[in-house]
Predict the structure.
Amino acid sequence: MAWAALVAALLLPSPAHAAAPESPAVSYSNPLVNQRADPHIFKHTDGFYYYTATVPEYDRIILRRATTIQGLSAAPETVIWTKHASGEMGAHIWAPEIHFIDGKWYVYFAAGRTDDVWKIRMYVLESSAANPLTGGWIEKGRIATPMDSFSLDATTFVVNGARYLSWAQQDPKISNNSNIYIARLANPWTITGTPVRLSMPTYGWETVGYKVNEGPAVIQRGGKVFMTYSASATDSNYCLGMLTASASANLLDPAAWSKSPMPVFASNAATGQYGPGHNSFTTSEDGKSDVLVYHDRNYKDISGDPLNDPNRRTRVQKVYWNADGTPNFGIPVADGATPQRLSSYNYPGHYLRHWDYRAKLEANVTNLADSQFRTVSGLAGSGTVSLESANFPGHYLRARNGEVWVDRNDGSTAFADGASFYRRPGLADAAGVSFEAYRFPGQYLRHYGFLLHVQPVAGTLASQDATFYQQ
């Protein structure tokens, strides 16, 4: 061993062996459902996921159910309600959400009038059937708010036993298209008390095309309440912002909430995803991972009004959590299999990432996509796999003179060979994974001095260095 490398190794902190991750990798394929916008997925205690979304015709409310999130893709679709032929609830049937409250099913949605399609208000349906796809639905009517104005995107959630409603609404006294409001609920279709405004579109990224804050969605963790919302026009400028409050605070006090100054989820040209927004949250099949549900398009340029473009697609990907307890949504990943992270067996909290295209091991990687890789069929074939960068599609982990880099595939046999690995059970823990180099039998992807190499593995430490967990 070279003297410099020996000194560096001696100065490294002693590793503590990691346990298998509490939140293991999930595997989904995008898009989940084509031509379905404003998606909402509810995981029920009966073992089914229930799915609803806006259809391009804006004329009906649909439901699907399946025992897995991916299963929703091919699940039969049932129309549970159709717009009225005249008058109220007769146009622009938008953004349905399904919730199970006190033993009954409720669907929240927005609708306009046949004689005034932009007179959009919020409405509620109720069903007492065990299976909401086959049961009957009762119209509970409009959710009344103090301002009788454009309102939509109702969602409901519970914090410390109190049930809230949050929604988007236009204040006639303000020149914004919509703001975010919150109120307590007396029952699933009736607010109580005075609603308060939580957010207005003021940042540049919230006011492109239109001045919009809409589509609130809530996720809770670690004593914090995180409310995402959508901003700007529904084209490629559409994006997610986020509000944060302590779960122990008075959520009806606007001062209890802080707004992130930048979008937390936005278009990404590299992955070909544009206008991600109007999200909801669910959990993975094993209950160990949070999942972001949203829509976007796979092209940027739209002819005419984006609301007339039918090609918003439902997509899903895992939510990760930063060391400070905040959610990290990363970027809207490329179509196809969702990427994963690889965490170190012997350096807990350290992830394989790229930096200036060099592969390394690092803790607290807040630029999430740098540490996400998609496992695909090996470029060299022969039962191998290759690891494709999430934020540099077409770039792969590749061994170069014993070092590991993220390089663009040049189509050569030499590249394919250097970027292909055999996936093996973890050398230090069979619950993990190790990657044996296709070109160099007996050599594995491992970290050394926190940089990634392909090296022979002999001994306990080397086996630990070459073992990772998929997250």
